[in-house]
């Protein structure tokens, strides 16, 4: 008899896929998406609290910088963008130039773009920004510190990535 491997209940990739299918933008229902998110949080809290469960990978490492979802509302997001520009104006190079690219970062009121304003930037995004900006090993920790202190949202990070890629393309 064939044995089908069953992933653990804290498998992040499967939760992302499941919630993506429940999301209204993918044809799901808003209430069902909210319920699915609650179930995920409940399961992850149970798994993390069970001393006999498989330890979650990188339990002390968070995937994103700490971020209050209320900062994603349009007025707060505009204020947060202005804060990022102010921090950038007073930061040393090369961070000043990178954060200065947020000058034309748009704020959104609905849809996926607005949802990206409600979560912190992922460390993968921040690392990619560092790569595109040419940050070395010395600059990267300072870059993460600046991103946490602002804090940068996923929308900010996406905007920076787009602007840095555009600048590389124009320079080539």
Record keyword descriptors for this entry:
172 residues; mainly alpha
How would you describe this protein?
It is built from 8 helices and no strands. The chain is an all-alpha fold and 172 residues long. It folds into 2 domains: 38 residues; 103 residues, no CATH class. About 7% of the residues have low confidence. Helix 6 packs across helix 7 and helix 6 runs parallel beside helix 8.
Task: Kindly summarize this structure in a few lines.
This protein is mainly α. It contains eight helices and no strands.
SSE order and pairing:
Elements: H1 12-22, H2 30-49, H3 74-90, H4 95-100, H5 111-116, H6 123-133, H7 139-149, H8 154-171
Radius of gyration, in angstroms, nearest whole number: 19 Å
- Note the main sheet: none
Q: What's the helical proportion of residues?
A: 55-70%
Q: Which structural category do the helix and sheet elements fall into?
A: mainly alpha
β-sheet strand percentage: under 5%
Low-confidence stretches: 50-61
Which overall shape is indicated by the principal axes computed on the Cα atoms? globular
Integer average pLDDT:
84
Question: First CA to last CA: what distance?
Answer: 57 Å
Q: Count of DSSP E strands?
A: 0
**H/I helix tally:** 8
Number of domains: 2
Query: How do the SSEs run, as a string of H and E?
Result: HHHHHHHH
